[in-house]
Amino acid sequence: MSEIDLNLLRVFDTLFELGNVTKAGARLGLTQSAVSHALGRLRQSVGDPLFVRAPGGLQPTARAIEIAPGVRVGLAQLRTALSPSAFDPGTADRRFTIAAGSYFCTLFIPALLARARQTAPNVSFRIQPLGGDLLVDLDEGAIDLALGAFTKIPRRLRLEALFQEELVWIAAAGNPLAGRRLSHTDLTGQPRVLIAAGKSFEALRLLTSEGGLERRTIVDTHDPTNGTTDEPPASVYDAMTALAVVGCTDCIALVPKRFAQQDGERHGVVILDAPDSGDGIGLTTLWHSKFEEDAGVRWLRETISALVK
């Protein structure tokens, strides 16, 4: 017997069940002609007519009746083997790799690990920073999930919105700006701590291209309307550093609100009653389409989504 196309076995199984070429075609999404052609190829491969015409439809031959149970079991086993494996967090022994910046590592990763220790005790995590090789790591499966402010993505990736983060102005609790309603004029000329990602200091919400993947980062620009052309007192790479610097200086900074709410008091920092700082930044989850049906990655996405709500 020659090698058989698995699609022919699907046609055989459906014909055996329904006994009608038209009905089998409708179930399989094939034309009547395509089903007849497939049956002809299968007859040639098996060396048996398999079905004969009879009143009311097709009747299986003795050979068809003999092989039908094995074909059905084999197709079912293939579907099971190729379907997403089940993931039981209570018993799963698996390691997930997540790429995330200091924002998520400070505010949400600890809560994720705490939840996992309770519900998935044998699951472990590797947390690594977002880097220029992120797209390559996603393509190669080295990263299961990335957390950040991603915007434009290649078609092969998947993106899910988590929430919109508000940006707020902060100052030390003893700063004269604290405790009163401020205008844009009040902020003009104030010494600022700038937050920049990598080597770029050019835009408030910078788009950094990483091989076709664009990520928004929180970056405070040297605004020409700020009333000074002097170099800012400090430029730092993350909001955590900005909080610490603002808490012990006369500088102000624009930071994510959740950062300021969680750690501001510890650093002696307050949120200023300042004008709206725009629409904020949309935080997202990013993963590769090849993990779309991965039950473990789905559990991870759902757990993170529940934690940030």
- What's the CATH H-level homologous superfamily of the largest domain? Periplasmic binding protein-like II
Say what the CATH topology of the largest domain is.
D-Maltodextrin-Binding Protein, domain 2
Low-confidence stretches: 198-207, 218-225
CATH architecture of the largest domain: 3-Layer(aba) Sandwich
Q: Given this structure, which CATH class of the largest domain is correct? A: Alpha Beta
Helix content: 25-40%
Instruction: Kindly give the count of domains.
Output: 3
Percentage beta strand: 15-25%
| Separation of the first and last Cα atoms | 59 Å
Radius of gyration: 30 Å
Number of strands: 14
What is the averaged pLDDT score? Answer: 84
Q: Given the structure, what is the number of helices? A: 11
**Element-by-element helix/strand order:** HHHEEHEHHEHEEEHEEEEHEHEEH
Domain HTH lysR-type: 4-61
Pfam family, one: LysR_substrate
Keywords: DNA-binding, Transcription, Transcription regulation
Protein name: LysR family transcriptional regulator
What does this structure look like?
Residues 4-61 form the HTH lysR-type domain. InterPro entries: LysR-type_TF, LysR_HTH_N, LysR_subst-bd, WH-like_DNA-bd_sf, WH_DNA-bd_sf, YidZ_PBP2. The structure is a single chain. The model is unreliable at 198-207 and 218-225 (pLDDT under 50). The protein has three domains: 6-82, Winged helix-like DNA-binding domain superfamily/Winged helix DNA-binding domain (Arc Repressor Mutant, subunit A, Orthogonal Bundle), CATH 1.10.10; 95-162 and 285-308, 3-Layer(aba) Sandwich (D-Maltodextrin-Binding Protein, domain 2), CATH 3.40.190; 167-279, 3-Layer(aba) Sandwich (D-Maltodextrin-Binding Protein, domain 2). Helix 1 packs across helix 2 and helix 1 packs across helix 3. Helices cover 37% and strands 23% of the residues. It has helices at 6-18, 21-28, 32-46, 62-82, 102-107, 109-119, 134-140, 184-187, 239-247, 257-263, 295-308; strands spanning 51-54, 57-60, 95-100, 124-128, 145-150, 157-165, 167-172, 193-195, 205-209, 214-218, 234-236, 253-256, 269-271, 281-288.
